[in-house]
Amino acid sequence: MTEEQVKLAYLLGALYGDGCFSKEGKVRFSSTDREFIDEVSKIVKELFKIELNIRINRLSLKNPKWRDSFELSSRRLYKLLSKFNPENIDVIPNFIESGDIKTKASFIRGYFDAEGGVYLTTIKRKDRLYNQITRHIKCFSNNTRMLEKIKDLLNQLQIKSSIFKGKKDNFYVGLWNYQSIKRFNELIGFIIKRKQLALVSTLDSYKVIQNRWDIKTYQTVMSLRNKEKIGAKRIKYKLLSNGINIPQPTIEAWIYNRYKITQNKEV
């Protein structure tokens, strides 16, 4: 695939997420992230030599939690991209579905920049022995056909994901295990800085291992991994049957990150 097709894939991913092909014959796009809309505008200029004016909608001067919105629209762009109108095609263009890794990753990046986010949550246990950390990358939409295509593309990039029911009529594609989040960062990532920083922080959080586990427990986990060749989920269930309850993220960090515990200390 050419570099132009890779850029077009990102543009379409962004437009399918935060844009629309309006009935009056315009492509409209909006975002609260300035670097995102700047990237879209830059790609349009590089591909089609079209200069787009970015309008600012100031949502509130009093409430700091409200963010300004940036918008652009173009009739010329609509004419150039009308064949990619999602109402006229089977969700995503064929050149993306049959494209190489860079093309597929670029489309996913554009869509996740628009509709995705990183979620790192600490759940406090009642026994106070340790806090459980959950890590997810989520991409929301009420278009389940689109999410199925996104899930399929992720699978082709060897990134495991599932579709979950969100609030009301909303659904989302979710990534939750270390290997998938790590590969997402390596192949896809985010253009939006705050989202990319959150992604890196989430990966770094795997380094924070609960220190209540002794070396014997660690060796038991690694022995199951090396001898039976099983993943973190199955290891967790095997240990539970013996009365040992280790959070799955901790097991993932040990077997995937190769963090070791010696004399009750990580190295």
Outline the structure in words.
This protein has 267 residues and is an alpha+beta fold. The protein has 3 domains: 3-92, Endonuclease I-creI (Roll), CATH 3.10.28.10; 116-205, Endonuclease I-creI; 215-266, no CATH class. The protein contains 11 helices and 10 strands. Strands 1-2-4-3 form a 4-stranded antiparallel beta sheet. A 4-stranded antiparallel beta sheet has the order 5-6-8-7. It is elongated. The model has no long low-confidence stretch (mean pLDDT 87).
Provide the fold topology:
Layout: H1 3-18, E1 19-21, E2 27-31, H2 34-48, E3 55-57, E4 69-74, H3 75-81, H4 94-97, H5 101-115, E5 116-124, E6 131-141, H6 144-156, E7 162-165, E8 171-175, H7 178-187, H8 193-205, H9 215-228, H10 232-240, H11 248-257, E9 261-262, E10 265-266
Antiparallel strand pairs: 1-2, 2-4, 3-4, 5-6, 6-8, 7-8, 9-10
